Every structure is written in C-alpha cells, then in structure tokens.
C-alpha cells in the first residue's frame, strides 16, 4: 500500500524544466534604478580590480608575495562577480527571469567554487601577513616564489571537487509544483526550499561543508591576526605599530565583510532563513565586497597609490610624446 502511494505521489509530481529567479521583482518601480546602480557597481569592480592586477604586474616595487596574492584576489573578485551580476542586469533589463536547470546548476557551481577559493585565499593572505610580521627574518625563505604559487594554486583548486559534488547532490533532488527561486542567483538555501520530500541529509551536508570551507578558514584567519596583534603591541615605537596596523586593517575589513555575511547565510538553520535577509547578505559577499576591495587596498596602501601615480604619469608622458610627434 505504501509502495503504491509512493508511486502515485511520483506520478502526480510535476517535473520542473526551468526555474524563475524572482530577484528584485518585488520592487517593480525600482527596476530601472537598480539596473543603473548595478551597472555602475559592475564597472567599478571591473575597473578597480583590473587596475590592481595591472599595477602589481608592472611595478617592480610591488613584486612581493603580498601583492602577488592581492592580484590573485582581484582576479578572483572579477570572476566571482561576473557569475552573478551580468545575469542580474539581464533580468532587470528584459524582465525575463527564467533560467534553465542546467544554467542554474552551472551558476551555482561557479559561485560555490569561487566562494571557496576566496575563503582559502583570504587564509593564505592572512598567513602571508603573519609570517611577514611575526617572523620577518624567515619571510624570504618561507614565502619564496615557488611557495607563493603553490599556495595560490591550492586556493583555486581545493574547493573544485567538493563544490561540484555539492552541486550535483543539490540538483539530484526532485522539484515539483513551485519553480520560483526567491533570490537573484541560484544558491543552495533557496533551491532546497523548492525540493520535494525530505532534505535533511542535504542540509546536514551543507552545514558540514560550510564549517569546513567558511568557519575553519575564518578561525585560522582570526588566529593569524591574534598573533599579529600580539606582535604589534610589542613593537617599541608607536609609528611602527601604526604602520603595521595600517597594512593589516584593510585585509581585516574585507575578511569581516565576506565571512560575516557568508557565515550567517550558510550556517543558520533552514527555519531561520528569510528571503529578504538572504538576498541582502548575499549582496555583501557577492557584490559589495568585490566593489570595496580595490578601494580598501588602494586608498589605505601607500605602495599601491605610489605605483598608480607612477603609471598615470607614465601614461601622460607617453601621450605627450605622441602628440608632440
């Protein structure tokens, strides 16, 4: 009897062929304004992070491990935001919010992989600052070119198999009736809400992976900066303490913005999820942080500002020579 009821339930369940990203459809009067705002944010992210990559590659004074990781981080931010923001802009412009299951799964997979990369890369950047400040004599030996490349490559690839598996597990669920995702991109929590049947195993898996990919890196970063702060407080001069604090504070701001919003999104219970709050928090770790990254690192880093001025002067000089000819 139970077997027959199960078959009947499966027969009555509709097969979802595509989803609908509701995004910001609850703000119909602001669609045009949102398109303009997100377009400006996207341009800021692309230009700002691209400038950091160019500067760190061209300026000899910035050929250091810290700026090597910063260039990686800027490139990551460009990739990360390009997975979600163009789709948001298309949805706002066309008002056609439908997305196929394959496109949704692809977007989710890249968001998860790049998000994991950001978590691990921030750990690597914290470790780099820890070695530079707490073990300055061993810094050239520990953070040599080969080690920097290995740490960067490891950050990029360590989360790939895990997040591909997580995406496959999520989309192995059966979806029926409602196909409207109350979000602006395909993310695990809002999609789990659309699944038929029991999703407890998937929720537990999500929590375990979130602890491994989000919570553990966050704890490692806090541990690194605890040692850094302890070392800074032991410096004999106030000028030295101010200089080191200035170097590290920018990294801490990015860490708090990213991990704070991501932790709440993926580690809070399913019953506590609010669509509005999820969208707001997701904006922080997918768009706001990449936008502020170049501003934070550029405006608070004298070496980057000096390199930018040098690049602009060189460009003006080249243009002057060209016009004179």
UniProtKB/TrEMBL annotation:
GO terms for molecular function: G protein-coupled receptor activity; olfactory receptor activity. It is found in: Cell membrane. It comes from the Eukaryota. The chain crosses the membrane at residues 32-55, 67-85, 105-127, 147-164, 204-223, 244-268, 280-299. GO terms for cellular component: plasma membrane. InterPro entries: GPCR_Rhodpsn, GPCR_Rhodpsn_7TM, Olfact_rcpt. Residues 48-297 form the G-protein coupled receptors family 1 profile domain. Putative odorant or sperm cell receptor. This is Olfactory receptor. CDD domains: 7tmA_OR10A-like. It is a multi-pass membrane protein. Belongs to the G-protein coupled receptor 1 family. The keyword Repressor does not apply. It comes from Hipposideros armiger (Great Himalayan leaf-nosed bat). Keywords: Cell membrane, G-protein coupled receptor, Membrane, Olfaction, Receptor, Sensory transduction, Transducer, Transmembrane, Transmembrane helix. The gene is LOC109377611.
